[in-house]
Amino acid sequence: MWPVNFLNNLARYVYGTGRGFRANDRMHLNGTIYANAQTSSIVAIVFTPDATLPARIDTPNGTVDFLQVVGLTNDEYELTWEWSTNGLAQVRKSPFTSKHYSQIPTS
Q1: Do 65 and 81 form a contact (C-beta atoms < 8 A)?
Q2: Strand partners for 27
Q3: N- or C-end of the chain: fewer Cβ atoms within 10 A?
Q4: Tens of pLDDT, residues 18-47
Q5: Exposed e or buried b for every residue in 52-90, given b needs 16+ CB within 10 A?
């Protein structure tokens, strides 16, 4: 259930601030991605263009950008400030096969 809660928190952030997310935006989570997971090392996220969908589509109501959320460890998050979010995302194309993600909770 934690993914639903996490996405709900992102939606609440967008609604509360009026600011949407764009490719290469990054955010520290001020804790682990899952509040009850002491073993998770995911403490930040970056938004990247979705790898399987078109980057952008035009609709009668405006444009839609398809993004995916990639979890980051603290070291990876710090690296985004020295390097770039896009560069790091390209290096880590398969986030859920990384050794850092073996501890993501499944419930």
Answers
A1: no
A2: 45
A3: C
A4: 999 999 899 999 888 877 766 788 889 999
A5: eeeeeeeeeeeeebebebbbbbeebbebbeeeebeebbe
